[in-house]
Design goal:
mainly beta; 2 domains; 9-stranded mixed beta sheet; 3 helices; 18 strands; 7% helix; elongated; DUF868_pln
C-alpha cells in the first residue's frame, strides 16, 4: 500500500456531474469496525477504543478493544459480547471499565452496525467514556461526569460483490451521505478488438472496467482503464471538507486467489497538506494522540468477478 502515491495518475480520472445510474444489487458490509478516541477529563487520560460489529443469521454481537495511550498496543484488552443485553466489568491496568449494552431491539437496516433501538455505554472509573445509540435507561440520565469521545476511523468489510453501498458522516456536525462504489463493464475499442481476434467475450484483463464513486445519487468521479490505473488518488470536497479518496485494486486484477480491493476516504485537517499514504506515515498510536486528526473511512472487499 505504500506505493499507492507513486502510482497515482491524475490524467486517468474524469470528473462527472451527471447523476449515477441505478445500482444493481449493492452489497452491505459483513463487519464494521469503528475506532473512537476518548479523553477522560478526570485524569487527562486518552484511550483508543475499537468496536467491531458482526451480524450473522444465527447470532449478532460485537467486540471491544481498549487501549490506553500510555501503554503498548500489545497490552490492550479485547472482549467479545454475544448476548443481546448485559453488564460486564473489565479490569484494565489501573482502570475499571464497565460495559453496559442492550441490542435486543436494535434495528440494522444495512450491514452489521445497529443504527437505532440500542445503547452501548462504557464507564471508566465511573466516568462516562463512550455512549452509542438512541435508547436510554433512567439510570443513564443521572450520570454527571462525561468524557469527550469522537469517531476517528470506520472500516467496513464486504464479500463477493462488485457494488459497495454504505453511509458515512465525515465530521461530527456533518450529515450522513450515501456512498456507492461500483465496477462497470464498458465496451471500448480495445475490448472489441480483443473479442474479435480471440473469439472471446470481454475480459477483465483488457481494460474494459470502469470504477465509479457516487455520493447521494451523484457521480463524483470515474476511473477508466483500471488495469493501468489500479491504484490512484482523487481529492473531493464534502461539507466544506477536503477529502482524499484512494483506491488499490491491484490484487483484484493480478491476484485471482485473493481478488481484494481497498478504498479509503480521509478528511484532511486544516494544516495537513500531505497525502495520507506516504512513506513517513504516523503510527496508529501517534495518530489518535493528534488533536487535529481527521476522519477516515476504509472499505475492504474480496470481489467476485463475473467472468
Amino acid at each position: 500500500m505504500r506505493g499507492i502515491v507513486s502510482c497515482y495518475n491524475e490524467h486517468a480520472i474524469s470528473v462527472s456531474d451527471s447523476h449515477s445510474s441505478k445500482h444493481n444489487n449493492p452489497s452491505t458490509p459483513h463487519t464494521v469496525t469503528c475506532i473512537y478516541k476518548l479523553n477522560l477529563f478526570s485524569n487527562q487520560t486518552q484511550f483508543l477504543i475499537t468496536i467491531t460489529w458482526t451480524k450473522k443469521l444465527i447470532h449478532q454481537g460485537f467486540t471491544i478493544n481498549i487501549n490506553p495511550s500510555d501503554s503498548d498496543s500489545d497490552s490492550s484488552n479485547s472482549h467479545q459480547f454475544r448476548k443481546n443485553k448485559g453488564i460486564e466489568t473489565i479490569q484494565l491496568h489501573n482502570f475499571e471499565v464497565q460495559v453496559l449494552w442492550d441490542i435486543s431491539d436494535a434495528k440494522y437496516y444495512e450491514g452489521s452496525e445497529p443504527v437505532e433501538g440500542f445503547y452501548l455505554i462504557l464507564l471508566v472509573n465511573s466516568e462516562l467514556g463512550l455512549s452509542l445509540g438512541d435508547k436510554e435507561e433512567q439510570w443513564f440520565k443521572n450520570i454527571k461526569v462525561k468524557g469527550d469521545f469522537s469517531l476517528v476511523s470506520k472500516s467496513e468489510l464486504f464479500y463477493n460483490t462488485n457494488v459497495y453501498s454504505t453511509k458515512s458522516k465525515f465530521c461530527d456536525t456533518g450529515i450522513s451521505h450515501d456512498i456507492v462504489i461500483k465496477f462497470d463493464v464498458v465496451e471500448d475499442e480495445l475490448s472489441k478488438s480483443y473479442s474479435l481476434n480471440h473469439n472471446h467475450r470481454y475480459s477483465y484483463n483488457h481494460n474494459n472496467y470502469v470504477l465509479s464513486v457516487c455520493m447521494d445519487n451523484r457521480t463524483i468521479f470515474e476511473v477508466k482503464r483500471l488495469r493501468w490505473n489500479f491504484r490512484g488518488n482523487q481529492t473531493i470536497f464534502v461539507d466544506g471538507l477536503v477529502i482524499d479518496v484512494m483506491w488499490d485494486i491491484h490484487d483484484w486484477f493480478f491476484n485471482q486467489n485473493k481478488g481484494s480491493c481497498v478504498f479509503m476516504f480521509r478528511t484532511r485537517s486544516g494544516l495537513d497538506c500531505r497525502l495520507w499514504l506516504e512513506k513517513n506515515f504516523k503510527t496508529e498510536s501517534d495518530e489518535f494522540k493528534d488533536k487535529a486528526i481527521g476522519f477516515s473511512l476504509l472499505i475492504c472487499s474480496n470481489c467476485d468477478r463475473d467472468e
